[in-house]
């Protein structure tokens, strides 16, 4: 099978409802807000960081902007037409990636005739760049410390519950929960689930109930998602596939944080989510409030590889946008910074070289 056929086959294996023939429609939003404009600026900055990192570190290959980068937002006079054209593009071509990677010998053809379909098909990789307002290393350190504290809390409460008088009281009142707690270890606390039944007929029973309440609280901490993620919407899988079926170029997601960036192939994402055993540990499926409640797949970035092992923090400045009816929107712009490409990961993942 060629690449496009492989992707189509994987999508059929995914135990989720993915309409590969989906048509996008709907009214355009009527007004942008400051958060949207800041996010757009951050996304544009992330794309530029990746573009510069690739182009300054590879003599043979170069990245070229491809996806839409229009400086237009809801509330602008031309936005309704722009939005309609974008929907037509999604329905006909699919979701364009932000960057295309070419062999440098193709640059002269791009400069002469622009990017027609024949040129696009010669790209060695397509990259969808996502940005996130986190420092990945600090987040990981925080979550690891939170987990250690919760595990210590579980162990401490377990010790109390296994001593008298609570051991006897719990075994009499709820033998099932007693056995769960007795057998639990530091590595299995997160797997425990029990309904809270609380008693108040004596001081000892009230104290037992409080200990169980605190144990459930610590367990809930351990059961929360504790990883940063690459987040394709379920709808995007169909739209990315549509573009791949047209051009056959290998597609990647690159999640850019303010200190590093992680890369994972679209094929890799599909392989992960086609295996339900990975849900909960490697990925989760959520209704994302930030994406209008759309079903979003959240893949642990640590499954990917560090394409940019370090990113220098950019400067940030205040800016404003004047809307037609006189409203002012204040937002943040990002300037400078630098990403440091890992040439081994670039060669192995993007170029397919060992």
Q: How many structural domains?
A: 2
Helix and strand element order: HHEHEHHEHHHHEHEEHEEEEEEH
Query: Which structural class is indicated by helix and strand composition?
Result: alpha+beta
**Mean of all residue-level pLDDT scores:** 91
CATH class term of the largest domain: Alpha Beta
Total DSSP helices: 12
Amino-to-carboxy terminus distance: 22 Å
Gyration radius, rounded: 25 Å
What strand order characterises the main sheet?
Answer: 1-2-3-5-6-9-12
Q: Estimate the global geometry from the Cα principal axes.
A: elongated
Q: Compute the number of strand runs.
A: 12
Q: Biggest sheet: strands, sense, closure? A: 7 strands, mixed
- Helicity range: 40-55%
CATH fold name of the largest domain: Trna Endonuclease, Chain: A, domain 1
Low-confidence parts lasting 5 or more residues at pLDDT below 50?
none
Description:
The structure is a single chain. The protein is α+β, with helices and mostly antiparallel strands. It folds into two domains: 3-134 and 228-350, Trna Endonuclease, Chain: A, domain 1, CATH 3.40.1350; 138-223, no CATH class. It is 43% helix and 20% strand. It has twelve helices and twelve strands. The protein has a seven-stranded mixed β-sheet. β5 (251-256) and β6 form a beta hairpin. α1 packs parallel to α11. The model has no long low-confidence stretch (mean pLDDT 91).
